[in-house]
Every structure is written in C-alpha cells, then in structure tokens.
Amino acid sequence: MIVDQLVSKATPPLKPTDTVEYALGLLMEVRVRHLPVVDAERRVIGILSEEQLLDAAGPDIPLVALLSAREPVSVTLRTHLFEVARLMMEHDLTTIPVVEEGLYAGLVRRHELFDWFARTLGTHASGAILAVELEERDYSLSQLVFAVEQNDVRVLSLSTDTVEDAPSRVRVTIKLNVRDATRVKHVLEHRGYHVVAAFGEEDDQEELVYRVQQFMRYLEV
User: Fold this and answer.
1) Distances in Å between the alpha carbon of 67 and those of 15, 16, 60, 88?
2) pLDDT at position 208, please?
3) C-alpha 194, offset from chain centre
4) Do 50 and 146 share a domain, yes or no?
C-alpha cells in the first residue's frame, strides 16, 4: 500500500507567518505533536514540533523565526507505507508531509498509519495467535505456513522481529482463523518449532496491538 491511499488533506499545515500561539492551538485541535510549515507557493519549508513551540521566546513569535535550514523530511504519493513508518520512527514524527512535484499535497498521521498496520495484521479478525521462535538460519516462511495450514487452518497474518536478548533468533507471530490453536501448536512443536506463547480468542486483540507496536518500533526496510 502506498501513501496515495492514506494521505490526509483535512489537517491544515502551518504558515510561516502563523504565531507560536496559533500553532500550539492547532496541534492541540488536531491531536498531533508535529505539523509541516508550508509557504505561499505550497513548498514544505519545515516541520515544527510541540517541544519547539513550547521553547519559543513568546506566543507572538512568527514560525519563520523557528525554522532551521535543514531540508524537512517528506514522502511522495508513491512512497510505500513501510518506508513512511521507518521515517516516522527514525525522526520521531507524529505526522509527515506528502509532496508531489515538490509541492505540498497533504500529510500522513501516525495514528492512521498505526490503524493500517493493525488492520494488516488482522487485529479486527476473530482468531487465536501463536508466537514461535527459531534460529534465523532455520527460518523458512513457506515451510512454517505449510506446517500450519496442513491442519485445515488458515494464516490471517504474520509478522516477524528479532528476539531482543538473542539477535540470531527470529520471533514469528501468527494470527489464525480458528479460536483454538492447540492442535496447530502441537504440530509445530512436533516439527521442532519452539512455540513460546499461545493466545486464545479472549487475548488476541491485546497481543496483536502489542505486536504492531513492536513492529513499528523495530521496523527496518
């Protein structure tokens, strides 16, 4: 999925002539901590944070006085959302401006990107969850999915990340289309997979939200 399908044009950007007081009010109104500053030609000339605004010398200071000479981070309408997530995490942004042919075309907000990842990982679908760990050298997506689906069970979503205290190992979180994963768990363990956790229907929402947060934190493209 690309930015074109998630870009928001409803949230107005800031103008260089806006004051600190106005900018803080707008941030509060739209519930974000960053907004782009766009000039009269619709070029993105900066991104200001709530912290920068709170550190300003006074409420009537124009925003142009707070802008740095650095080129602001931006994406295009054809940027993939994985890259957007990487940039947001790298620069700790809650919004990122979208440009088309060098001109401002809208922005992507982090909470909407988070919602997209949650839907992608099947958060809203009914089903159990398994967390499997294995050595990275032994990881084969096709073999793992085959081992699961030979039990008349379908994989709704799958995500991976490294184990924090064992960087050579991979943790795979699998969302299934069944509520009881007991049979699949036994099959995987019989095939040598280390199933570290199994969550039933009542637990899946919380676990998948956690997995999305981990994915956003450690995503590397």
Assistant:
1) 11, 9, 15, 19
2) 55
3) 27
4) no
